[in-house]
Design brief:
alpha+beta; SH3 type barrels
């Protein structure tokens, strides 16, 4: 299974962006979204180093809420 990671753009340099999520920063390619207007502060879904979808802050938060819930269940001891 592959997951996309929601991140917020903090800097743009051409087709590359510096993005952040949960204190982790990554440089990602914006090449696949070159037909969309992207700006610092926008949220994007990242998969294998590429931004693949622009998303709202609410969509990004919903994805992180779901991921956090999955991580909690993975870390919980079995009953």
């Amino acid at each position: 299974m592959c997951l996309g990671i929601p991140m917020q753009i903090i800097e743009i340099d051409g087709y590359n962006a510096r993005c952040e999520a949960k204190g982790v920063e990554r440089t990602v390619s914006l090449f696949m979204l070159q037909d969309q207007e992207l700006a610092v502060g926008d949220h994007v879904m990242i998969h294998v180093g590429y931004a693949i979808q622009k998303m709202s802050q609410q969509e990004a938060q919903s994805a992180w809420d779901l991921y956090d819930e999955m991580f909690e269940k993975m870390d919980a001891p079995e009953a």
